[in-house]
Specification:
The chain has 249 residues and is an alpha/beta fold. The chain has a single domain, classed as Rossmann fold, CATH 3.40.50.150. The protein is 28% helix and 27% strand. The protein has a seven-stranded mixed sheet with strand order 5-4-3-9-10-12-11, covered by helices on one side. The radius of gyration is 17 Å and the shape is globular. The N and C termini lie far apart (46 Å). The relative contact order is 0.15. It comes from Amycolatopsis magusensis. Keywords: Methyltransferase, Transferase. Pfam families: Methyltransf_21. GO terms for molecular function: methyltransferase activity. This is FkbM family methyltransferase.
């Protein structure tokens, strides 16, 4: 069953839908809006896109990055993947509300292989932290006590997992993939493992949020990307989360 949605105004006339939870607004949506729209955390890392880019939004959440991208590149072709059912419902509502019905959406997690009924931990008060690997949130609870309290209310949902390469034909059966954005709460290497050999040369750029950047950077370097890792700031600094950019020269 889909969660009830609540509309939140973020700036001027811009707002979006989020799942209603039992504890009120945790401030997570405002933080994500600041990070994406104000700080330009994904496109401000040396990313260069054509006028009509082909983009993958892995871990789309309620769709803020896709909305930001479409505001800058209206002709962008986007695949937005989000596994949590309540969050996926908000994603679809936001795309419709802002007139972006052309975005390809999939209610799946991205991983190394196709799976069904995979346990996924959904945090009602911090849905952006929902993850396949809840054990990784131990560090968050220890280093950020306020976040730890908000992570206390969780439930397990069963999600489907697909390989990114199995979804790419629906987005772009041939030609370049201009950007793959990955923000998947600990499953970064899983997503990368789901890219087939034939698709790696198609990918021009990646931007990845990771708490453990070293293995991600090493993999991208082996794949021929020029890699940079931007040091964390704000609430992410305590967790050591870095934004990794990979670009082909």
């Amino acid at each position: 069953m889909r969660a009830e949605l609540h509309y939140v105004r973020l700036s001027g006339e811009f707002g979006c839908y989020v799942p209603v939870n039992d504890s009120g607004d945790s401030g997570e949506l405002g933080f994500m809006y600041q990070e994406i729209f104000r700080d330009n955390c994904y496109l401000g890392s040396g990313i260069r896109l054509p006028e009509a880019p082909v983009v993958v939004d892995a871990g789309a959440n309620v769709g803020l990055f896709t909305l930001f991208l479409k505001s800058r590149y209206p002709r962008a072709r986007v695949l937005a993947a989000e596994p949590a059912p309540s969050t996926f419902g908000a994603l679809c509502a936001n795309l419709a509300h802002h007139g972006h019905e052309d975005v390809l959406t999939r209610e799946v997690a991205l991983g190394a292989r196709r799976e069904t009924g995979v346990p996924f931990t959904y945090y009602r008060d911090l849905p952006g932290n929902s993850t396949r690997y809840p054990e990784l949130k131990t560090r968050t609870r220890e280093l950020v006590p306020a976040a730890g309290r908000l992570l206390a209310d969780s439930r397990s949902v069963a999600v489907a997992v697909e390989r990114l390469s199995d979804l790419l034909p629906d987005l772009a059966p041939a030609g370049p993939i201009d950007l793959v954005k990955i923000d998947v709460e600990g499953a970064e290497l899983d997503v990368l493992a789901g890219i087939g050999e034939a698709d790696w040369p198609r990918i021009r750029q990646l931007v990845i949020e990771a708490e453990e950047p070293e293995p991600v950077c090493a993999l991208l370097e082996r794949r021929g990307f020029d890699v940079t890792a931007r040091e964390p700031y704000g609430p992410l600094a305590a967790l050591g989360t870095s934004t990794i950019t990979g670009r082909r020269t």
